[in-house]
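FORM 12-B: Structure-to-Sequence Request
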């Protein structure tokens, strides 16, 4: 169960609303609600930090991408380590590539507690601009990242790595049926997007049913969901998600 966001912007999610120590305390309280309702599964808390932030201007490198400074990422890495939570580094790719951004993060991902998330919405093709256009990511690119994580896990004796891929439209992952499974990668397809309860339920059912492989995930929005699902509502989903993210 993760809290999502970026410390520079409260609009991007929970992580922008307070210092890491205060966020961890809130995270543990929310996680406890799930643990009380479903004792059959352990609940692992996580901080999902948007590390690569898509921009509406190209920047000097033309990538429409701002990468968080090492000091800030170190701060959240330390906060996660000190509190026994996971750290998920979330990448909005801009006009870079998923493989390039993953390669950049490999020194951090070698840690058993640091995981990865990709956001196809902000993966831009030629002529596309974040915030104006809705992007997509091909299954081949996701498989390339999975292979990189697989190699990292095997070469460093890690049990597995988690890869979360966010989506709120069926075409956000192209060639979906070509997604592959890797023994040391726990792939999660997360039904993203805010809205009213009935629309979110239809979206979850459609996106999750269509996945050819991987675990189910869902994202909830404290401020933007009309009728926020309760933890019991979440556990009543079919199938119950393995990953729950609050933004």
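FORM 12-B RESPONSE
SEQUENCE OUT:
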């Amino acid at each position: 169960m993760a809290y999502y966001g970026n410390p520079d912007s409260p609009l991007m999610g929970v992580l922008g609303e307070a210092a890491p120590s205060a966020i961890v305390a809130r995270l543990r309280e929310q996680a406890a609600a799930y643990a009380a309702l479903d004792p059959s599964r352990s609940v692992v808390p996580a901080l999902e930090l948007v590390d690569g932030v898509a921009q509406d201007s190209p920047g000097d490198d033309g990538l429409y991408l701002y990468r968080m400074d090492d000091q800030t990422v170190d701060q959240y890495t330390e906060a996660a380590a000190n509190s026994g939570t996971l750290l998920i580094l979330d990448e909005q790719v801009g006009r870079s590539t998923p493989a390039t951004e993953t390669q950049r993060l490999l020194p951090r991902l070698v840690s058993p507690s640091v995981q990865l998330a990709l956001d196809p919405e902000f993966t831009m093709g030629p002529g596309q601009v974040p915030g104006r256009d809705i992007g997509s990511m091909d299954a081949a690119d996701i498989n390339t990242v999975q292979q990189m994580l697989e190699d990292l896990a095997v070469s460093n004796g890690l049990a597995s790595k988690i890869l979360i891929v966010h989506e709120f439209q069926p075409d956000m992952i192209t060639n979906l049926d070509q997604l592959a499974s890797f023994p040391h990668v726990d792939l999660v397809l997360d039904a993203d997007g805010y809205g009213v309860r009935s629309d979110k339920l239809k979206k979850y059912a459609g996106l999750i049913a269509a996945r050819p492989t991987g675990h189910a995930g869902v994202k909830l929005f404290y401020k933007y969901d009309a009728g926020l699902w309760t933890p019991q509502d979440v556990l009543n989903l079919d199938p119950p998600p393995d990953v729950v993210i609050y933004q």
